[in-house]
């Protein structure tokens, strides 16, 4: 970073940087995120932050875990926010490191508002959301001209860890050609059932991407009607993303990681030329 053509912002004492770590691969960190890691006195990190990313912190940096995992004992959000405030008021440089992007199902807005209320200065450092970058590592685009011009991102559970009951599943099923669902494994049977009940085809393609963009990435391609059973039989575990829609078929042509291991890709994964006469 010594040869950058622009200046990186100073990480000042008493500030909190709310920072996205991306979907997992440390190479997907932003320059600002890496700069923050190399400057921070304290890093308070979430469960989805890879150890290889934490190793980029400067020597002597205090690393504190504040991860939340569904169904497991987790720190209370208010306690995490108070920890950020306390360290900042001690004059330390505090990096709050979250998987993906802090403002995409990351509760970064809640923490930022707590800092505002406490009079603590902060910077927001966006990250690559797993719902975009993680799917790209699976060879699945969230939009494609031949399949969709809209996409909906939803969460698979609410604050209480249950399937969100305030979502209009009928509107989502009817209006969004592609649906990307975060944290959906626990309630996948209910979610897929709700989408089918509201009009989606049981045969619609679905992909489940576990541990996206890491060395442990696993991709299951299935259908909406069988996805819950297939996830259970294959032993797919969180953190996982679920994507519903025709874009899943594009993986046959865009699985660039698979191609590195010898997979033969097809130039027409949507089979648009099927049935056409050839000369």
UniProtKB/TrEMBL annotation:
- Origin organism is Denitrobaculum tricleocarpae
Q: Which Pfam families match?
A: TP_methylase
Q: In which pathway does it act?
A: Cofactor biosynthesis; adenosylcobalamin biosynthesis; precorrin-2 from uroporphyrinogen III: step 1/1; Porphyrin-containing compound metabolism; siroheme biosynthesis; precorrin-2 from uroporphyrinogen III: step 1/1
GO BP of this protein:
cobalamin biosynthetic process; methylation; siroheme biosynthetic process
| Family per record | Belongs to the precorrin methyltransferase family.
As recorded in UniProt, coiled-coil segments are: none
Annotated EC: 2.1.1.107
What the entry lists under NCBIfam families is as follows: cobA_cysG_Cterm, PRK06136.1
Can you name this protein? uroporphyrinogen-III C-methyltransferase
What residues does the Tetrapyrrole methylase domain cover? 17-226
Q: What keywords appear on the UniProt entry?
A: Cobalamin biosynthesis, Methyltransferase, Porphyrin biosynthesis, S-adenosyl-L-methionine, Transferase
* Entry keyword annotation includes Lipid biosynthesis: no
User: What GO annotations for molecular function exist for this entry?
Assistant: uroporphyrin-III C-methyltransferase activity
Q: What top-level class of enzyme does the UniProt entry assign?
A: transferase
- The keyword Nucleotidyltransferase is annotated on this UniProt entry: no
């Amino acid at each position: 970073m010594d040869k950058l053509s622009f200046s990186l912002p100073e990480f000042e004492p008493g500030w909190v940087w709310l920072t996205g770590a991306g979907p997992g691969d440390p190479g997907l960190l932003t320059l600002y995120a890496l700069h923050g890691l190399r400057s921070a006195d304290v890093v308070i990190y979430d469960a989805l932050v890879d150890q290889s990313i934490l190793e980029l912190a400067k020597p002597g940096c205090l690393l504190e875990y504040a991860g939340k995992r569904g169904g497991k004992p987790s720190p209370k959000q208010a306690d995490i926010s108070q920890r950020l405030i306390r360290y900042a008021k001690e004059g330390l440089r505090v990096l709050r490191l979250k998987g993906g992007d802090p403002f995409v199902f990351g509760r970064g807005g809640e923490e930022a508002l707590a800092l505002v209320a406490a009079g603590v200065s902060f910077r927001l450092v966006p990250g690559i959301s797993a719902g975009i970058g993680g799917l790209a590592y699976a060879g699945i685009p969230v939009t494609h001209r031949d399949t969709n011009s809209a996409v909906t991102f939803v969460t698979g559970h609410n604050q209480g860890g249950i399937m969100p009951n305030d979502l209009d599943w009928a509107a989502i099923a009817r209006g969004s050609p592609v649906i990307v669902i975060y944290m959906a494994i626990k309630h996948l049977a209910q979610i897929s059932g709700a989408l089918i009940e509201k009009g989606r085809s049981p045969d619609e393609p679905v992909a489940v991407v576990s541990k996206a963009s890491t060395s442990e990435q696993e991709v299951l391609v299935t259908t909406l009607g069988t996805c819950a059973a297939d996830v259970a039989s294959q032993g797919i575990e969180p953190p996982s993303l679920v994507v519903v829609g025709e874009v899943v078929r594009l993986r046959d042509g865009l699985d660039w990681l698979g191609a590195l291991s010898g997979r033969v890709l097809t130039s027409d994964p949507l089979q648009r030329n099927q049935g056409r006469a050839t000369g």
